[in-house]
Design goal:
The complex is a heterodimer of chains A (100) and B (395).
Chain A lengths: L33 E5 L9 H5 L5 E3 L5 E3 L9 H5 L5 E5 L8
Antiparallel strand pairs in A: 1-4, 2-3
Chain B lengths: L3 E7 H11 L4 E4 L6 H12 L6 E4 L3 H13 L4 E5 L1 H17 L4 E6 L13 H5 L6 E4 L3 H16 L7 E6 L7 E7 L1 H7 L26 H13 L2 H15 L6 E4 L6 E5 L3 H14 L4 E6 L1 E3 L3 H7 L5 E6 L9 H10 L7 E6 L9 H19 L7 E2 L5
Parallel strand pairs in B: 2-3, 2-4, 4-5, 5-7, 6-7, 10-11, 10-13, 13-14, 14-15
Antiparallel strand pairs in B: 1-8, 6-12, 9-11
Helix pairs in contact in B: 1-2, 1-6, 3-4, 6-9, 10-13
Classes of the chains: A alpha+beta (100), B alpha/beta (395).
Chain lengths: 100, 395
Amino acid sequence: MSSEKKGWKDIEIGCVVTEPGSAASYKTGDWRSERPVRDNTKCIKCGICYIYCPDAAINEDEEGYFEADLYYCKGCGVCAHECPRGVITMVEEEEEEGEK
Amino acid sequence: MTKGKIVGLEGSFAVAEAVRMANVDVISAYPITPQTHIVERLAEMIADGELDAEFICVESEHSAMSACVGASAAGARVFTCSASQGLELMHEVLYIPSSMRLPVVAVTANRALSAPLSVWCDHSDAMAIRDIGWIQIFAENNQQAFDLTVCAYRIAEDKEVLFPAMVHIDGFYLSHVIEGVMLPDEEEVAHFIPDYEHPFVLDPEDPVSMGCYGPPFIYPEAKKAQEVDFTNTKPKIQETWDEFGETFGRYYSPVEKYKMEDANIALLTMGSSGETAMLAVDEMREEGRDVGLIRLRLWRPFPFKEFRDAVKDVELLVVLDRAISFGMGGPVCSEVKSALYDKRKDLSIVGFIGGLGGRDIPIDGFKYMVNRALEKVKMIERGEEIETEMIGIRE
């Protein structure tokens, strides 16, 4: 995000944020340990996952299917829990090589 | 010479007069002994139309400071005051104006903390908030309670400062004792603290976000900026006090000296006990002893340079603490020692704790401390361990 590389002398007094809507640039997807993976062959496009997502991180595509925006999705699993058709499975994020 | 008149005022009313003359916009406070008279007097002033301000009644000190934060963020000049348990209940919110850089001005009528319950003076409440980024100034008498409160607005609102400031007056010793106070001409005070504009205010026409989430990538930079700016307030504080002196004839400095010329022994006090200590120094001087007195007027930011200068010719420094850092001794003494670490190997520093919970320290108490400190220096020279002594304690 824009303020990520700011040095201490460049911060506004009191760490005031002058850019409106700057929270949108914060990548909450970094928090995720599991990602939602969908099997759209079972999906009835009911939109319950979209309604329940606590971060409004799910968007509807042109065909009416729903997909999580992984920039924001924290991997909470609420969508998978609420989906009436079992479309969504939470799959563990793979660790980067060398991290183990 | 400045216009004005001398009026008999208790310290609380002297503070209220300063706040009235500062023409504050918003006051929010919750009464607690020994601060109550300040709030009562200000509420009366507003009710009687002597002060055009909003008094926000709240259910706690936590809310009082929260209201002050909000009002200050909207650009208002604000005031609050508290003491002891009340200041502790306010504690969580005290961090907010110092990190959001809001020039809230507050007065604390210093009081001990429970238990046992004590409404009387010591500096435990002041010490509990020393690490949170408020400018902390200690008054010694009612004139200073007035003057330093006026100055606190000018200091806090300076564009190169923008930090909250707290004036400490000793509970009862100042808050409830009537002394002659020179009240200057109101217009001169208004001229001394003109209207100010914060670079950022809450304004729907020009929105900003304050007190935002600070993830690890930005939090340390925010604290670095706060620490550097806070330390850099020192010259502005002195400049303001100098200008106050030129205008009103009373001068203040972060470290004030009394009879320190040629003194080999120095007492060090903060707050009202400096007045008694001066009498003790007078008597000891008459006895031919080379004793002087140093009073710390500014506690935060700590005036390292001025302090080191004040003790440069001293061989023994005797520090009085009116608070305990349990398991560590006196907080003022520890800090004084750290301020001199690596600077003065030849200076003996002996700390005493006294005046807790309103226990008086008479003139003889200060003489005792000096004599006892000399004994302790000999003990230290013999390699004996010495502990911080609490004076006047019954066995």
